[in-house]
């Protein structure tokens, strides 16, 4: 859908998944046979930046020393709850867990949500890493991409950096990463609020 040449935020459901988009990005998800992010197009760079989709698990859950990505959960239902938001109901019966994965967009950004629930009769303990997005490459070579870590204004580098500081020492310990392509003049930011 376009309005004055701009892509409006929206979702498109299909039999095997869904696409959600706004003016800056188009994300394609599979829900059959499993939940996966298969493509992430950056409109500023005019290309798919998810070069290795197998490296993206959307979220990771660890329980009883076993690790499960979103692709290991059974998709129970997929439904649009608004023109800009999709909910995916998931189950992991072998671990006694269920989850609701949400993805939505506004004019500039994509938002993810996750709620994991214990469905077993016993008390469970688990760890969750969310969101988990890997396999991104913005430049022709991944070595040309730069990462930003905010530390007193930011550290930007294409090389590995070891950052050491004391907790609370005027450090911005944001749960975020920014991937930038100097040759493309654009990037992607993932921020956990």
Task: Record the SSE blueprint.
Layout: E1 2-3, E2 6-7, E3 10-14, E4 17-21, E5 25-30, E6 36-42, E7 47-48, E8 58-63, E9 66-69, E10 74-82, E11 85-92, E12 97-105, E13 110-118, E14 127-132, E15 146-149, E16 155-157, E17 175-181, E18 186-192
Antiparallel strand pairs: 1-2, 3-4, 4-5, 5-6, 6-7, 8-9, 8-14, 10-11, 11-12, 12-13, 15-16, 15-17, 17-18
Structure description:
The protein is mainly beta. Helix content is 0%, strand content 52%. The protein is built from no helices and 18 strands. The strands form 5 sheets. The chain has a 5-stranded antiparallel sheet, with no helix packed on it. It has a 4-stranded antiparallel sheet with strand order 10-11-12-13, with no helix packed on it. A 4-stranded antiparallel sheet has the order 16-15-17-18, with no helix packed on it. The protein is globular. The two termini are 30 Å apart. The N terminus is likely disordered.
Defining key terms:
193 residues, mainly beta, 5-stranded antiparallel beta sheet, 4-stranded antiparallel beta sheet
